[in-house]
Amino acid sequence: MIDPTISNAIVYGCLYAMMCVGLTVTYLTTKVPNFAHTDFVVIAIFSSATTFILGNFSSPYLTVPVAVLTGGVVAVLMYLLVLKPLTKRGANIVVLMISTLAVDIILTALIGAIFIDYIGTTYGRILANKGYYLFALNQLPDFQIFGERGILLVAPAVLVLMTISLNYLLKRTRFGVAMRASIENPNLAKVVGVNVERVYLVSWFIAGALAGLGGGLYSIQSPTPQATSSFLIVDIFAGSVLGGIFSIYGAIAGGLIVGISETYVIRVLTVLVNNTYGFEAGAQLDAFQKGIPLGIMIITLLIIPRGLASVDWRGLLRRLK
Amino acid sequence: MALDASLLSQLVTDLTQPAQLFCLLLILSLTVNLEFGYAGIPNFGKVLFVAVGAFVAGSLSYRLMIYLLGLKGADIFAFQATFVPQIDAHLANHPLTAIGLAFFMLAIGAVLGGLVGFLSSYPAIRLREDYLGMLLLASGEFFNYASQAYYPFLGGAQGMTSPSPIFSLAAFTGEQNLAVLGVLAAFALAVYVYAEKVGRSPLGRTLRAVRDSEVASEALGKDNVAIRRNVLIVGSMLAGMVGVLWLFYQPYIEPGTIGSFTRQTFTFIPFVIVILGGVSNNRGVLLGTFVYLVIIESFSQGTTYILSQGYSLPVDLSRVQAVLIGALLIFVMLRRPQGLVPEKPTLTIKRSKLKEMVDNLMRGGSSDLAEVEKEAKAE
Fold first, then answer.
1. Interface predicted TM-score (ipTM) of this complex, two decimals
2. Entry pTM
3. What pLDDT score does B1 carry?
4. Which of B201, B231, B259 is the last residue of a domain?
5. Measured between beta carbons, which residues in chain A are less than 8 angstroms from residue B39?
6. Domain extents for chain A?
7. Residues in A touching B325 (Cβ below 8 Å)
8. Residue among B9, B6, B314 nearest A113 (CA)
9. The domain containing residue B365 runs over which residues?
10. CB atoms closer than 10 angstroms to residue B351
11. Between the CA of residue B25 and those of A192, B12, B32, B33, B165, what are the distances in Å?
């Protein structure tokens, strides 16, 4: 069996990568960092988890499509109801950012109202009988394969599939070309007949769906307390900034690095502190876990503000030789 | 007459708490207006500075008082229920200690707020606005998360109660809440006057220039980065003091992203107030704070009434309120982006003098102010 620290690090890395890509796609199209992105993740977690529990499904993997769909639909609604009208009014980037904060507040409250209050009380007895509580959702059951948790196999596989299909979509399809053109120069794209509005709409669906995908798998890897969206936001933004917020491949790398280092570095430090100062001291370190993504973000902004994607890797390699 | 007097005192009691909240929200919104309204800085980490001030001042003053009173306990947070009343009783009988403690806490709030404001914005202050917004927001979430999880700081998720020097000090007056309101109102007035002065000064116009056209202000020799940094430091110092004032108002500290110092209350609401009232316009902020409080007070009164009639809602009312406030903000941004009181150009010359100049021009004279004055003197 693989060391649980390593397997956790890999799984979190893959999940964060999916969420980071979603954030980057919205950033590319609307040019605004979407502070409600992790709410897409949480809303997807709750919708797939309640479907799994109340619908008596045999495995939570079966309800991941529900998460994908919910994430996509919520993202499209946000684009249509908030960002598109505001952009049409000529709102500047700071105003757009504040509007995504407003959506974050609304979605957090709605998640609480729908899932924790309404479903949590209406179906409270059924949920409690099965051992689930929505105000602090438990980790969903996983299958075993070769003595390992299934998610250890599924998360990397899904990430690879996602990368290949995104690559295919962007480079080999008409839609991908239209999307790249709309990102590069919306006005020129309009002139040559691209329906930019529709491209943005589909991009937002993809972004929300990827957040939902990450969320659906996240609920199998970890419990979901109420504050999940608040602390996931640190990881996801750190990953996107590290990748260079305009690059999809950068976001995949950034998410992987943030997820892996957060899990792994804290574990290594804890062991180190435990060995030096005793068990109590090491356990306290967990409190500063989110300091690692924050630190990554700060270092990135100080050294390479445009992220990994802006680094001239070939030149760097040549110089090292 | 006796009835009237009792009604009046009842009214005063009922209005004290909203009035205290008004002062606190006003100060906070004025700082957001200074940063975002005038200078265009998206400080989405406002909660970070408020929380740093409140948490550190609360934690340190509690430890200091325990040390001064010689209280003993293995875990100071487990003994709060006995320690805090003793501390407050001591403060009530020792006015000098209480005043000293209040100033000590405010100083901590201001210094730490400013320092954290400088440090947390340093990596991104040279970059575009969105990077700064992301960094400040993430820092706020990290601080709240770590404060909750690190037990020795504030006693974990349960939180702690801070000593309340002003409230205890005013014990002899019999109207402790009014005394606290007095302190808060004095602060709010001072910050308002300061914000008005800044807004009307050459600095205020420089800030708008930085906001509206960075290139133009740089071409005129202004150091945009230094200006943004300084505004953020001042705003964060004031926000740190708001954190301490908040403890004078409500001494309970419950850390964590769903605790009592949330991003919603301390980052989002001030932005709602500023946008509702009118950007870069202190009078608008005053009106916005008032309107916001009227809205949430009538919401809570209305729902209390409806619930008392035997109806019940399947959801928590605070969530309904959050949805309404969020929707209100988006509505205002879409329908009336200039807010209730639109931004006006600042007049550098007095209105009467301007009128004089215009009249003079109409008569075919010169518009030069010096000449107008000369003529006026000659007459």
1. 0.92
2. 0.90
3. 47
4. B259
5. none
6. 4-226
7. 105
8. B314
9. 349-379
10. 8
11. 51, 20, 10, 12, 21
